[in-house]
Amino acid sequence: MALFFHCASHVLNLVFNDLNNVSEVRNTTGIIKEIINFFRESTLRRQIIPNIPLLCETRWSAKYKSISIFADNFIVIVKALEELSKSTANSKTKIKSYQLFTAATTPVFIVTLQVIAVYSAKFEPVCNLLQQVNINLKTVNNHITKLVDTLQLYRNCASTEFTVLFAKSKEIAEELDVEIRPPRVPPQRSNLTLSTNHEEFFRISIFVPYLDSVISSLKDRFSKIHNQSFSLMDLHPYAMKIMSKVQFICTSNDIVKLYGNILSSNFVTEATTWYEMWNNGEKPLDSIEYLDLIEMSKDFYPAVANAIKIGATLPTTTCSIERSFSTLRRVKTWNRATMGDNRLSGLCMMSVHRKRLGEDTKFIENSIEEFGKKPRRLQLLFKK
């Protein structure tokens, strides 16, 4: 009965991955990942720079946080690489640190890093919001639409917006004794005409393609069809309370356009009556669960009940499922490889809901009583 949807957080992550089509962004992201891994793989090297999370492909919120911390400590990281390349460390460490130092001090890397860091920060709040259990998908989708409009405004005023980023890149380059200039033209491309203005060159080659890729991916992945599907959330009384009757009728018509072959022909009329019923009441509407509306509407508003069922199938996020995978990896170590499914499930639940267990004062007593119900020849020692 419902359209196929990606997980909303996954969709936003795919937008970020689409930026790999821009070669400068792809190369910069790869170098960042290599530098972070280089420092994290050694305990001694970890102490040289601030702690930076891994640039992980699956931990989406950590990706934005990692880039932000890396950009904030970029000068410290580069100087640490330079010192390691000249230190008395083993030859493998010196070679690797010199290679990373050379890659990180190129003008293209410095400029691209500033662009990625600034605009990744705009996605981080959305990514964190999409990982909540009780998110409002329509609100998030509206925020994405506003974000696209804002990015389009930046794209139209690219010369003004990039001036600030380029000035910051020059400050960092001066501190690292690097000259911000276009790359050398290969002999086989000697007929290629490059801009004499350095700022214009980096704006055309990096900043504009970056924004074009982000805007295009956001529009494609958060399409208008999905926006119409999110209109099903407006059937909640709390959403209807802040809508005028005309707005609600327009929303009902959008729902009919998408699900008209599933819903009955009098859906708009039935939904309007549903709207009037809730707007005349005085019951606190924000406390009503979305699924409870199915029972409230199935007898007198069957078409509305079917629409609510469809809305309930819309995916919010798979982050909770993926967190359970991470919990399973922490719990099921090699020492516990032979445990049964019941015990493994119980330990995972305790790990996930450890805060709630800490608030339950009788949890330990109940666990001991449950443990004692089965005959075991074990001697338990408890110390106060």
TrEMBL record:
UniProt-listed InterPro entries: HATC_C_dom, IFN-induced_PKR_regulator, RNaseH-like_sf
GO molecular function: protein dimerization activity
Domain HAT C-terminal dimerisation: 283-354
Domain of life the protein comes from: Eukaryota
Protein name: Uncharacterized protein LOC112685271
